[in-house]
Structure formats: structure tokens, C-alpha cells
Amino acid sequence: MREYIAKKLAIAVLVLIGVYTITFFLTFMLPGDPARVSLGQHGSEEAVELIRAQWGLDEPRYVQYINYLKGFIRGDMGVSFRYYPREVIYLIRYRLPVTAYYGLWSIIFAVAISVPLGVLAAYKQNTVIDNIAVLISQIGVSLPNFWLGMMLIAIISVKLGWINPVPDVPSGYIWSPVGFFASLKDYALPIITVGTGMMASNTRLTRSSMLEVVREDYITLARSKGLSERVVILKHALRNALIPVVTNVGLQFLLLVGGAVLTETVFGINGIGKLYIDAINYRDYPVVIALTLIYTGGVVIINLFVDILYSKIDPRVSLR
Hints:
By secondary structure, the chain is mainly alpha-helical. The protein is built from 14 helices and no strands. About 30% of the residues are buried.
């Protein structure tokens, strides 16, 4: 296990360097001057040149590349152009907990509904329950996140007045022992918005995976031994059927950043997704590069976690 993890981490370092290189040069190829964007159209050329020198933008490109790389190795992500002189790490520490909070609850919401619903649909195949589950999954997959979010705001927040449409809870509070559950109501609409599509996808995958597994010979053998149907389904069938579901959930963690961009724009949440879009619009290069590297690191870690989890779910899977 240690050898496998060490090998993956070594590959991860090479991947991060490659992603950093590509992101750096593509980012600096974007049209527009960060100094000009910062000062606006009425800023003088002298002021623009002063800002460029202050941010190191007047140095050769390879020098900037090396300086940024050295900074990331030391754990220094630089200073934001838009929020100067605030450091990038400060912005990420403030914004990341918010996105991670409703993202985690979205995954919990999706898994808690989709796995039991998918198992029940497969067990009750071609019945009313199965048809309802398939219909729910089809609707959930078809609904765009931004449209669902706006409908939830219009109906639940504006018309009924049950929930504040724009969550305004301090990022430090939501991860406290009390705030982790107390903030659920404030973030209920974003959680439902992000989790609905995930729930629908996992329901379809769980159902199809269960239908394949229950036709296997070892399931027939388990039933012939006189085991109860509950033990056959939950202990033997579900455990093997969860492998593709685990893979899908891992991918959904990675797609949270993409979903966060739309969700946070609709709900006005100051999370990572909104920070990403603002950084691109304002040519905030240090923030764009830092967030891309963090996202890449998350991809590597989650893929590693999913690989390890495989061996725990199905002993037949060998990490070697």
C-alpha cells in the first residue's frame, strides 16, 4: 500500500508541474493587461507602468514563471492583483470552506437518496416504484443547475419566504460543531440545486449496476443457501454494485468546482467558483494559477482515495 501511494504521489508532482506550466503560459496569453484592468481606462500610462513593476509584470516571462514556481514550492501563492495587497492564500482560506461546506452536504444529500432509491428500483424492477425512480432520475438529469436554483429562489424564498435566498453565514462558523448542522437551512437551496443532478445520476447508475449484479451466479448461490433476501441484496449484491457508484461520486467531487461557478453566481455565494470567475474577468493571474493547481491536487487526491476505497469495498481488487 505504501509503495502504491508513494508512486501515485510521485506522479502527482509531475502532473502538478505540467499543469502549472500549461496554466501559467495560457493565463498570461489572455488578452488584457492586469494593471490596466486594475486602474481602469482613465489610469495614466505612468501609473500602469508603476503597477506592472510592482507586480513583477515587467520582467521576462521565464523569470515570472520561475518566481511563481519558487513561491508555490515555498507555499507562497503570491498576492492577488484585484484585492492587492491581500495574499491569495487568504482569499482561498476564506472562500474554500464555503464551497466545501455546501459541496459536501450536496454529496451526502445525493448519496443518501440515490443509493436506497436505486437499490429499491432494481429490486422492484418493472413495477410502479421502479417507474417512479426512473422518472425522478430522468427529471433530475434534465434540469440545469442554474434554472433549478432560480426556481427554488422564486418559489421557496420569494413566494413562500421560508429561506433566505442568499446564504450569509461566516465561513468559520459553518465548520464549527454547532454551525455544521445549524447552517443547513441557510444553504439548503444551494445543496438541493447541486445535489439534485448528482442524485439523479447516482440513482440511474445504482439501479443499472444492481440489475447486473443480481444476475450473477454468486447471487443465485447465496439465495440457494437459504440466506434472506435482505442479506443477499445488502451484503452480497450492493457491496459489488457500489464500485461504479464510488467512481461516479469521486468524479462528482471533482465537478463541484464547475457546478459551483453557476450555483454561486445564482445564489450570490462568495465561494471558490465565484472567486475563479472574478479572477478570470479581472486578469488576476495569481488567483487563477493557484486555484487551478489546487483543483489539480484535489483530482489526484480524490482519485487516490477512490482507488484505495475499491480495495475496501471489493477484496478482489488488487492495488498492485
